[in-house]
Write a structure and sequence with these properties.
By secondary structure, chain A is α/β, with parallel strands linked by helices. Chain A is 32% helix and 23% strand. Chain A has helices at residues 57-64, 87-96, 114-124, 130-143, 160-172, 190-207, 218-224, 242-247, 252-260, 266-270, 302-306; strands at 8-21, 26-41, 46-50, 72-77, 80-81, 97-100, 178-182, 210-215, 227-232, 235-241, 312-315, 318-320. In chain A, a hairpin with a 2-residue loop joins strand 9 (227-232) and strand 10. Chain B folds into two domains: 4-90 and 174-329, Rossmann fold (3-Layer(aba) Sandwich), CATH 3.40.50; 98-169, no CATH class. Classes of the chains: A alpha/beta, B alpha/beta.
Chain lengths: 332, 330
């Protein structure tokens, strides 16, 4: 592999939301939704962010999409600091980065036909003359596996899977380089979900797309992503290429997450002893001291209660933030 | 006697003076201390079937055929009053979204003791003592404080634990759980499902687990009924179903899910197309428009159920069907 510059680089991202109270809405505290998240996504690959509700994965996605302003940290797209972009560059950036959301019903305007939904970005960014728009919409529908007549339908006339295809077609209209998929297949039925996963993978190969894929279903994230980061309470607990991450997880939280996923094989399930992780995710407004995971961790020690573990390499390319996982001693 | 036996159940909806069949033929049975999973996608009729057993079908919906035998009593013919008696103390239900199925303006104590006071005629004091026991049993710490709280003060997992406590409160013989963990995070899902399974086994309660997650079925159920388009298309023990799925729809479902125990690049082979629209009449097997094995007869005649060693399937082209017709010809 050549060491080219990554398409997306997130460096020490922090996002806090103020807690306001009282008549004057005085700020009384802060919810740290994301603290110190860093990762980079090479062009043409898929990067997965997994975690349970409230772990900050969607906040990271929204920060990358410039839908909210981070408290601190740098987001670079194609080498350029997004926060320092001028209006022209930012407008180009918004075309090069697109999003596909979870619920295709609430992310598609119910009063617009599919044709208008897909062609709106083309018109706003003046990418195509009016005379070519109809053909372009038909082309986009076609690559997403829908017949051209769907351009005249409204969202309520389509099934969930078809709506998600329209959402993807709309994202593709801008000819993007990066697509942020926020729980893009989570709301779909099993057989439809597999269709959309295959569509996303096919499009990636064909168009050289890069995905930032946010999900909570570990088996889906593993299937799609080359590299995965597991988040817990706003921090990355562990990150590695998919295969080592799932084959030999280093962080106790990752291990617990993987154990919690039942496999569709009764013999396999009967043969394994499952100790479900106890307790629940604490409130990000009042996180525990030290390692955020220590109150639920079977291996927690005094040090875990006091000090925040750093995200350190435990094997080449495999990083974990855990005091109890031996860190890699650099060779030589 | 089998605890619950559903036979050829059909459910219709009446709309604008027209009637439309949503469930064509549901049949399955479950025994005490046993877990049956009903698997299917949205619109397959699995939730409607559960609501019919509870006698909670909404307006316009009605049972139009078949039988629901609970402890030998046919629930499709009993009075509304008798059904009301059975709810809670005979059959209880755990719903998917505990936030919408718990009453937001009543305390946990009131909701948890309501059934016991009404059905078991417990005094307030006795019901409260039992409620504390139940909350402890479902793993809620500090039950005294929780009793005074309201649903919005509890987390999703805790609310679902309260739902389970309510379901157990009148000591039912059967619990129907409709997607009990779909709205929960994966670690909480594992907690709730192990808890439900363990409690049902310990109390000898039959459990019907309605889900679309094939992993959950493999971990928690002994028997499975697969529903598609309002019909049960395959019935087997969990082991038989996963080892040797007979119906092309079941095969398609199993090939659609990415699995952690298989190599990452194992391709997914989704079922093409989308589930049938229940308002459009579809002759023959309801799966035939999406079926890779469909032949002429599939579009004409509804396949019968045939069984081999406790494994039942409704498909003209299944292995079991072929085995049987070969036997008949010889």
């Amino acid at each position: 592999m050549t060491t080219t510059r990554p398409l997306l680089e997130v460096n020490d991202l922090h996002v806090g939301f103020p807690i306001r109270k009282g008549f004057f809405q005085r700020t009384v505290g802060e919810v740290r939704a994301v603290s110190g998240v860093s990762f980079s996504v090479p062009r043409g690959t898929s990067f997965g962010l997994v975690g349970e509700s409230g772990c900050g994965k969607t906040t990271v996605a929204r920060a990358v999409l410039q839908l909210l302003e981070p408290t601190s940290g740098v987001i670079r797209f194609d080498g350029e600091d997004v926060a320092k972009m001028d209006a022209v560059a930012l407008s180009r950036f918004r075309g090069r980065v697109q999003a596909v959301f979870q619920d295709p019903f609430s992310s598609l305007n119910p009063r617009m036909s599919t044709g208008r939904i897909i062609s709106e970005p083309l018109r706003v960014h003046r990418l195509k003359p009016e005379s070519e728009i109809k053909a372009e919409v038909a082309r986009l529908l076609d690559i997403c596996g829908l017949p051209a007549r769907f351009a005249d339908l409204y969202p309520h006339e389509m099934s969930g899977g078809q709506r998600q295809r329209v959402g993807i077609a709309r994202a593709l209209a801008m000819n993007p380089e990066l697509i942020v998929c926020d729980e893009a297949v989570s709301a779909l039925d099993v057989s439809i979900q597999a269709q959309i996963i295959n569509l996303l993978e096919g499009l990636q190969k064909e168009l050289g797309l890069t995905y930032l894929f946010i999900g909570h279903d570990l088996s889906v994230v593993r299937h799609i992503c080359d590299q995965v980061a597991v988040m817990y309470l706003g921090r990355i607990a562990e990150t590695a290429p998919s295969d080592p991450l799932f084959a030999s997880p280093k962080h106790p939280y990752t291990q617990a997450l993987i154990d919690a996923v039942p496999n569709p094989d009764p013999d396999y399930e009967a043969g394994r002893e499952i100790v479900p992780l106890e307790g629940e995710v604490p409130s990000p407004a009042n996180p525990p001291s030290g390692c955020f995971f220590h109150p639920r961790c079977p291996r927690a020690t005094d040090r875990c209660r006091r000090e925040v573990p750093r995200l350190d390499p435990v094997e080449p390319g495999h990083m974990a933030a855990c005091w109890e996982t031996g860190t890699l001693v650099p060779a030589g | 006697m089998t605890l619950l036996r559903v036979e050829n159940l059909a459910i219709d909806v009446a709309r604008d003076g027209q009637s439309c069949r949503l469930v064509h033929d549901a049949h399955f049975s479950v025994d005490r201390g046993e877990t049956l999973a009903i698997v299917g996608e949205s619109g397959s009729g699995k939730s409607l079937t559960a609501l019919a057993v509870m006698g909670l079908l909404g307006e316009g919906l009605s049972v139009s055929g078949g039988h629901i035998l609970f402890d030998g009593e046919d629930l499709t013919t009993i009075s509304a009053r008798r059904h009301n008696d059975l709810r809670g103390s005979g059959i209880a239900m755990i719903f998917q979204e505990p936030m919408t199925s718990l009453n937001p303006v009543r305390s946990i104590e009131r909701q948890l003791t309501e059934g016991m006071r009404l059905k078991n005629r417990l005094s307030r004091r006795a019901a409260r003592a039992r409620a504390l026991e139940l909350l402890t049993e479902v793993g809620i710490s500090d039950p005294e404080r929780r009793l005074k709280q309201y649903p919005h003060q509890l987390s999703g997992g805790m609310r679902q634990r309260v739902m389970i406590a309510i379901a157990l409160s009148c000591e039912p013989e059967l619990i129907l759980a409709d997607e009990p963990t779909t709205a929960l995070d994966v670690t909480i899902q594992a907690q709730i499902l192990s808890l439900t399974s363990r409690l049902c086994r310990d109390h000898g309660v039959g459990l019907v687990l309605i889900t679309h997650n094939l992993g959950i079925v493999a971990r928690h159920a002994q028997n499975v009924a697969v529903m598609y388009g309002g019909r049960v298309v395959e019935r087997a023990t969990a082991r038989q179903l996963y080892r040797d799925p007979q119906h092309p729809y079941t095969q398609g479902l199993l090939a659609s899910v990415p699995r952690l125990d298989l190599p990452r690049d194992t391709p997914l082979r989704p079922v093409p197309g989308a589930p049938p629209d229940p308002t459009v009449a579809l002759p023959g097997c309801r799966f035939h428009p999406r079926c890779p094995k469909a032949s002429d007869i599939c579009a004409e005649q509804v396949p019968d159920f045939i069984a081999e060693g406790g494994h039942e399937v409704a498909c003209w082209n299944s292995g079991i069907q072929k085995l049987k017709s070969k036997g008949a010809a010889a």
